[in-house]
Amino acid sequence: MRKITLLAFVLLAGMMMSMEYFVDPNNEFIYAVLDGFEATYNEDDGSLSVFNPQYNVVINIGKISEPVEGLELGVLVDEIGKNLERSGFQILSRNDRDFLGYPASTFEGLTSQDGIAVHVEFTVIEVPQKGYYLIVAATPDESYNELVLLLLNAKQMLMFIE
Fold it and tell me: 36, 71, 93, 137 — which has fewest CB within 10 A?
């Protein structure tokens, strides 16, 4: 039991040291950014972008809507899906799930820019009393399968701490 507790403490301490924290200028949220990612905050739209040059991974989180009475996550996600298809994305899958305790829906899609195939994940999250947020994660398609865990961990770290 003592070894398990010590191992858990070492893993937790290692994870805490492998992150940096970013507070948005409005002091609304604190973002945790996984080590190895460069963070840029856009004050115009209040979004945070992170980039990992080693793996060519880009992730962006931004608010897409304030809470609106009668607006449901499913309706919003359906509209986003239609817009993605009109924009030339090939939708590979859509999954409704819980994301860190919040209702969420994720699209996986492919697009091609200048002959380069890009795998993109769009995760729409409903945060009660805060609104709807969108996390977009993009990486070259050929390396997507190798980077799935990195993308998941980076998205979870990027999710705001209220």
Answer: 93
Ramachandran category for residue 105: left, alpha or beta (phi over 0 → left; psi -120 to 50 → alpha): beta
Percentage of the residues of the chain whose pLDDT score is greater than 90: 36
Give the residue extent of every domain in the chain. Answer: 17-160
- Please compute the mean of the pLDDT values over residues 139-149 and round it to a whole number: 90
- Residue with more model confidence, 18 or 25: 25
- Digit-coded pLDDT (tens) for 91-136: 999 999 899 899 999 999 999 878 889 999 999 999 888 889 999 9
**Closest CA relative to residue 159, chosen from 19, 53, 26:** 19
Measured CA angle at 122 (ends 144, 99), to 5 deg: 95
Alpha-carbon gap, residue 67 to 14, rounded angstroms: 36
What are the CA-CA distances from residue 109 to residues 56, 77, 88, 90 (Å)? 17, 14, 10, 5
Show Cβ contacts of residue 5 under 8 Å, excluding neighbours closer than 6 positions. none
DSSP code, position 25: T
CA distance 157 to 151: 10
